[in-house]
Amino acid sequence: MKFTGKAWKFGADIDTDAIIPARYLNTSDPKELAQHCMEDADPKFAQKVSPGDVIVADKNFGCGSSREHAPIALKAAGVSCVIAASFARIFYRNAFNTGLPILESEEAAADVVTGEQLEIDLDTGIIINKSRNLTYKAQPVPPFMQELVAGGGLIPYVMKRLDTSR
Q: What's the angle, vertex CA 2, arms to CA 80 and CA 111, rounded to 5?
């Protein structure tokens, strides 16, 4: 599975409140959440991001509360993948459970800047910075996790498996 998109760079310790502020948690509508995605970190992010774009961040992305709204908002805003030096463990699980692929790469997190074009291969863990012809390595996403992403997340994946087992 491959993704290509423009990078949006963020720093360390981007918590779930920065991804989707708590004041918007009175809805679970992905389209409404997308309108406020990353609002406290970059007030214009939701208007600037395009489908397929990639977030690149430093360490501990997704720390804070364990809300699933954070990866849902990112995915609904059009973010195809998040690359970070590291992720909070609960965000890591919530991301895959909602069908948002993520990769850990300290090298890419340290080097990529906003606006660069990236190509990400989940099978190999290779991240290509097409703007500067550089290659970074991340841990490949295991096939089962890729199935979750391809299926739209854990619940659609399980529902499909239940339907096909009858």
A: 70
- The two three-digit tokens of residue 161, written as one number: 């498996």
Give every CB contact of residue 123 below 8 A, 6+ residues apart in sequence.
1, 140, 141, 146
pTM above 0.90, yes or no: yes
How far is the C-alpha of 73 from the C-alpha of 119, rounded, in Å? 22
| Residue linked to tokens 């309108």 | 35
pLDDT in tens, 73-132: 999 999 999 999 999 998 999 999 999 999 999 999 999 999 999 999 999 999 999 999
Across the chain, where does the E strand assignment appear? 2-10, 54-57, 81-84, 102-104, 117-121, 126-129, 134-137
> Could you tell me which of 70, 72, 64, 62 has the C-alpha nearest to residue 99?
72
Tokens of 39: 């609002």
